[in-house]
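Late entry, evening session. Most of the bench is empty. Finally got around to the prediction I had been postponing all week. Sequence below, unchanged from the version circulated by S.P.
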Amino acid sequence: MSGNSDPLTPRAKLAVTAGKAAAAVSRAAGRGSGSVIGGRVALKLDPDLLARLATHLDVILVSATNGKTTTTRLIAEALRAAGPVVSNALGANMPAGITSALAGGSDARFAVIEVDEKYLSGVARAPDPKCIALLNLSRDQLDRAAETRMMAEHWREGLAGSKAVVVANADDPLVVWAASSSPNVMWVAAGQMWKDDAWSCPSCGGVMQRPGDDWFCGDCGFRRPTPTWALSGDHVLDPHGSAWPIHLQLPGRANKANAASSAAVAAVFGVPPQVALERMYQVQAVAGRYDVVQFMQRDLRLLLAKNPAGWLETFSLIDPPPTPVILSVNARGADGTDTSWLWDVDYTRLTGHPIFVLGDRKLDLAVRLEVANQHFQVCENLEQAVQMAPPGRIEVIANYTAFQDLRRRVGN
């Protein structure tokens, strides 16, 4: 599909110009990238702009509780083998940020768009996506997001009758329930480490049976679909049973799962698994995640974890004890102001690590670590934590705004 035709009306062009001007002013004032305010201004002038900007693009939407920013980046890298790509790579994943991203894609063939899970149903109707990738659903921002079963229901209603190819994780019952309303689903066995949100059947409320990697409801018969793509160790298995090696610079099992889903998406657009996976190797970090930075003559690896499922995955990839670990938790608007989720995280997995605690809600975290019988020290700032940490690379795990605070502090 060519990106050379101009689908924009004069009103739409005015909206794009005004949005870019607002974004530039925001950047000049030091208030971030300006993508959100730019998109808000543009949408105010033309409420249909999102759909207009996407008319010449093959749109791919990516949504999940965890991993959507990384997966969006991996898919974008893979699809560049087939043509120019526009993407909201910095994670501005609500309609305003998505509109800003698409406004920069006049010459692109593909738009790979991360979508906040709360907005997926609405966004899925606007740009007529060709493919929608659904990775996982788990508890997150309890004061803002719906309960997981309600979120799955919103997805299910929004995807009903969709013409898009839905690439969905067969191992997450909530995702399967949501995707099953769509007539064209490609199932990927991507795994599910966090299972605490999937013990009751989303279809009937019965108790899920989970023998090994399988799952089913004994009451209504709702069960795991047969996948056509699968993550198998360090390989992706394609629908023909061929095994393709995964070589990533990003750490952990979760990113291999993201790569498997990304390879399936790329195949929808004719990019072979070998080519897609080779291109994914180029990704070293994603919006600061996994970056190793130097601070006070020490190596710090920056890791984002913003809910129980994310913390569980992150604990699985940090270096073993006695590697020092800095934990930082805030509870600002972008994080969700409810910190009760801390009690769902298994902090006993940090036993043996020297732990240093930071952030606006460091005392909430300290209470949780005390109950988990962990040895830790509460610090006033990053400098104090680094000074107190024993030798070696330091693993720094933070939730969303705490992560951004740390990136600014280390100059990343």
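Two things to note before I forget:
The two ends are 37 Å apart (CA to CA).
Residues 1-5 have pLDDT under 50 and may be disordered.
Will write this up properly tomorrow.
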